[in-house]
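Revision sheet: structure tokens.
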Amino acid sequence: MEILLVEDEPSVISLIERGLKGENHSISVAMDGFTGLKMAGLNQYDLIILDVMLPGMNGLEICRNIRKTNKDVPILILSALNQTEDIVEAFNRDADDYLTKPFKLDELRARINRQSRKARQQTTTSNTITIDNLVMDRDSKNVQRGGKSVILTATEYRLLEYLMVNKNKILSRVDILEEVWGMDFNMSTNVVDVYVNYLRKKIDHPTEKKLIHTVIGMGYILRNEN
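Predicted:
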């Protein structure tokens, strides 16, 4: 994979470069935010890893700017900030994954490999999913409910896609965290509930028929009650 690493700590840069050496990854490094954003715009990368606290421009601003022109490149946030609100804010900027410092190289490798698998799977899965009058085109990443377009962030889209692929199946919060966010951290975080509520406001609230349901004590399910 062609990876852009935007990180200003030499020790972290060295750790990642050494840790990924020999795994068919090519790593380009930017040590400040402005350089990172410029490199992201000029080159094609398979993955971008962003620190949050950077000179010039922080990683969340870089992520927001990248998404203006590139909706598809996977972005992994690497940060010492580990509160729920920090994580939610990163996904609100359309990051794909979030890994807190200090981290283990094995976990970083696993997350990179996961993004690579997701990219391959997107080329082999069915292009359109339909449940009742909710339609998702996985090629264009367009979602419609009742013929009207629904504008979703990248994280909201991934969550809805996971619910739709697993329609009529109860998904626990742990299942959703692992699949949508690729996370294994404090299970007390309410990031799943926050994003389910975001989805409900866009998918269900404008209509009388609700598709996203809570199963108390178990998780969430997307189903057509008819």
